């Protein structure tokens, strides 16, 4: 069997991802393609971690169901009303659009940080997938508090997983979408089946007493010892902003620039309500049972194996892959800005190698929450800057894409906005002793929007008086 | 041929989910449920790649 022929990969050498030009109208994709991609992407190995998190932190059943409902609606709207319209208007990646706004030197800093953060995320996914393969091969993996690799067998598993992910990502958007579309119909069924099948072991005898058992034995409202109490607000904010870098941070412009219409942002709802609603609820149910069986520190692989056997382990492996693939793809686009003449597939291979090396260190998974907080802090202000520049500036008489217009290499107003928004966001986080790192993304985004309008006005006023050639 | 492959694929998806409902109403034990789920998984991945990518290619070409 010719794998390249089956996957339609013969044209990999001439793959064109439109990194530095708008996606032509002839290349836009249908709605179902986005559904397949995002449904797969948002059912990740981490769903086996986040669902249990709410159980461990004592969320009540009512708070969980309502918080997830509202949070996921807000996330879907953020993609539909903020990210997709910006992507369809410009048909550019966030990286190239940002270069037009802030100049090559400043965007290079952003690209480097972004590429690194994407690589870290991909590394975490490689680690999660490897945890399931470790169970299949009877190789003991590191615990959630481990920092360094503990065995050669484990490192070899990581390298094998990383190699497959990097190769698939190398073939570009089409193959990433194809890879996701193969897993997308099957994976949610594993989560749903596993969640349903363990309910009798918790005492559920039918839909009639589900709510009673849910309150008494699953989401009891009482955190386990040593964990803080999470409320409705924690659940809602987490569901809304855990992907904030992708929607209000506009990273998913890289994906939605292929959308025919901005309304295709609604496709994200499939990912949210399957991955971040049903899957979080299902994995929470599984976690409650594992806790009752005496395992107080379960791994994603252990939870999946208990709920669905070998198929559950395959699900964890696939869930990690389908998230890591588009993540490495995005990292490739980010770094492409630094090396515009280099083939994207070569860059993707290099990033895959970096991510695989990082994945060998379990600290990438055990400190994932801190990384996500940092990611939110970096990405949110940039999203605000790009959105204001695209949509508001033409309406208030300011010049969009200033760096491109006057050949700026380093737009000071963007740099000032970015640094100030990150600093104030972090200060607010520390000052209010917020126990939830995602809380800082929203104030940073709003501060960046306001500050950028003010600084851009002063900057463009200065340039127009000096050169008298600047006009919107 | 495509029709047969698709049928096996969809049967695989049914086998992945349906046994869970049987466990829920008490007519199937957990070990059998996990076995049927694995059989369903194998059916899906052994057949879906042969038609799902062709369908995607056809829909892409119809767009261009």
Structural topology:
The complex is a heterodimer of chains A (472) and B (64).
Chain A (H helix, E strand, L loop, with lengths): L2 H4 L24 H11 L5 H10 L4 H30 L3 H9 L1 H33 L15 H19 L2 H11 L3 H11 L1 H4 L7 H9 L13 H10 L11 H4 L11 H25 L7 H37 L7 H16 L3 H4 L1 H29 L5 H5 L5 H20 L9 H27 L5
Chain B lengths: L1 H23 L5 H34 L1
Helix pairs in contact in B: 1-2
Describe what is shown at a glance.
Chain A has helices at 3-6, 31-41, 47-56, 61-90, 94-102, 104-136, 152-170, 173-183, 187-197, 199-202, 210-218, 232-241, 253-256, 268-292, 300-336, 344-359, 363-366, 368-396, 402-406, 412-431, 441-467. Chain A is an all-alpha fold and 472 residues long.
Please provide a written account of the structure.
The complex is a heterodimer of chains A (472) and B (64). Chain A is mainly α and 472 residues long. Chain A has a single domain (28-367), classed as Orthogonal Bundle (Hydantoin permease), CATH 1.10.4160.10. Chain A is built from 21 helices and no strands. In chain A, helix 3 (47-56) crosses helix 14 (268-292), helix 6 (104-136) runs antiparallel to helix 18 (368-396) and helix 9 (187-197) runs parallel beside helix 14 (268-292). Chain B is 89% helix and 0% strand. In chain B, helix 1 (2-24) runs antiparallel to helix 2. The longest helix of chain B is centred in the last third of the chain and has 34 residues, at 30-63. The model of chain B is unreliable at 59-64 (pLDDT under 50).
Which two protein chains have the largest interface (Cβ within 8 Å of the partner's Cβ), and how many residues from each? A-B, 34 and 32 residues
Q: What is the number of helices of chain A?
A: 21
* Radius of gyration of chain A, CA atoms, in whole angstroms: 22 Å
Q: What gyration radius of chain B follows from the Cα positions, in whole Å?
A: 15 Å
**How would you state the average pLDDT of chain B, rounded?**
86
The CATH topology of chain A turns out to be Hydantoin permease
What class do helices, strands and sheet pairing of chain A give?
A: mainly alpha
Q: Report the portion of residues of chain A in β strands.
A: under 5%
Poorly predicted regions of chain A? 1-15
Structural class of chain B: mainly alpha
**Strands of chain A, count:** 0
DSSP helical segment count of chain B: 2
Shape of chain B: elongated
- The beta-strand count of chain B equals 0
What letter string, H or E per element, gives the SSE order of chain A?
HHHHHHHHHHHHHHHHHHHHH
What is the chains' assembly state? heterodimer
Tell me about the biggest sheet of chain B? none
Task: Please report the first level of CATH classification, the CATH class of chain A.
Answer: Mainly Alpha
Instruction: Give the overall form of chain A.
Output: globular
User: Roughly what is the average pLDDT of chain A, rounded to an integer?
Assistant: 85
Main β-sheet description of chain A: none
């Amino acid at each position: 069997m010719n794998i390249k022929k089956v996957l339609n990969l013969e044209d990999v050498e001439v793959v064109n991802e439109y990194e530095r030009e708008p996606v032509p109208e002839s290349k836009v994709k249908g709605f179902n393609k986005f559904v397949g991609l995002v449904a797969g992407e948002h059912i990740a190995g981490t769903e086996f971690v986040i669902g249990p998190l709410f159980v461990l932190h004592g969320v009540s059943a009512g708070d969980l169901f309502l918080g997830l409902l509202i949070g996921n609606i807000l996330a879907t709207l953020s993609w539909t009303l903020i990210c997709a319209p910006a992507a369809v208007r410009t048909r550019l990646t966030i990286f190239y659009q940002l270069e037009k706004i802030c100049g090559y030197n400043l965007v290079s800093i952003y690209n480097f940080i972004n590429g690194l953060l994407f690589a870290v995320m991909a590394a975490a996914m490689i680690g999660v997938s490897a945890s399931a393969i470790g169970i299949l091969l009877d190789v003991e993996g590191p615990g959630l508090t481990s920092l360094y690799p503990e065995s050669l067998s484990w490192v070899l598993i990581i390298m094998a997983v990383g190699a497959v992910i990097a190769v698939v990502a190398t073939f570009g958007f089409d193959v990433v979408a194809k890879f996701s579309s193969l897993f997308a119909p099957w994976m949610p069924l594993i989560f749903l089946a596993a969640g349903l099948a363990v309910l009798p072991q918790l005492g559920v005898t039918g839909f009639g007493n589900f709510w009673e058992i849910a309150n008494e034995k699953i989401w009891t409202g009482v955190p386990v010892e040593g964990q803080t109490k999470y409320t409705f607000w924690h659940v809602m904010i987490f569901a809304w902003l855990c992907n904030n870098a992708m929607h209000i941070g506009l990273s998913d412009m890289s994906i939605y620039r292929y959308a025919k219409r901005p309304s295709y942002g609604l496709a994200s709802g499939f990912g949210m309500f399957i991955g971040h609603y049903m899957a979080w609820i299902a994995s929470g149910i599984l976690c409650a049972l594992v806790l009752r069986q005496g395992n107080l520190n379960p791994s994603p692989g252990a939870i999946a194996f208990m709920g669905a056997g070998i198929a559950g382990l395959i699900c964890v492996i696939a869930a990690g892959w389908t998230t890591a693939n588009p993540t490495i793809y995005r990292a490739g686009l980010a770094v492409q800005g630094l090396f515009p003449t280099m083939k994207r597939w070569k860059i993707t291979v290099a990033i895959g190698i970096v991510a695989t090396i990082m994945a060998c260190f379990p600290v990438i998974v055990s400190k994932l929450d801190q990384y996500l907080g940092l990611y939110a802090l970096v990405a949110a202000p940039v999203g605000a800057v790009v959105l204001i520049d695209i949509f508001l500036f033409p309406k208030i008489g300011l010049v969009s894409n200033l760096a491109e217009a006057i050949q700026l290499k380093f737009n000071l107003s963007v740099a000032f906005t970015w640094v100030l928004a990150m600093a104030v966001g972090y200060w607010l986080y520390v000052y209010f002793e917020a126990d939830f790192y995602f809380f800082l993304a929203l104030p940073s985004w709003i501060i960046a929007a306001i500050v950028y309008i003010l600084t851009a006005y002063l900057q463009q006023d200065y340039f127009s008086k000096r050169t008298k050639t600047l006009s919107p | 041929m495509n029709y047969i492959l698709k049928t096996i694929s969809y049967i695989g998806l049914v086998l992945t989910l349906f046994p869970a409902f049987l466990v829920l109403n008490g007519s199937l034990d957990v070990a059998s449920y996990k076995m049927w789920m694995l059989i369903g998984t194998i059916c899906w991945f052994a057949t879906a790649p042969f038609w799902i990518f062709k369908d995607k290619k056809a829909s892409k070409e119809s767009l261009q």
